[in-house]
Amino acid sequence: MAQEGVSKFHLDWQAGPVIACAERAILGHWRDVLYVRGLIGADPARYDGIGFGNVSCRCYGGFLITATQTGHLATLAPEHFCQVTRWDIVHNQIWAKGPQPPSSEALSHAACYDAHPEIRWVFHIHDPLLWQQTAALGLPATPLDAEYGTPAMALAVFHLARQGRLPLLIRMAGHEDGLIAAGHSAAETGAVLLNAVTEAQASSALRR
Question: Which residue, 101, 61, 89, is CA-closest to 161?
Answer without folding.
Answer: 89
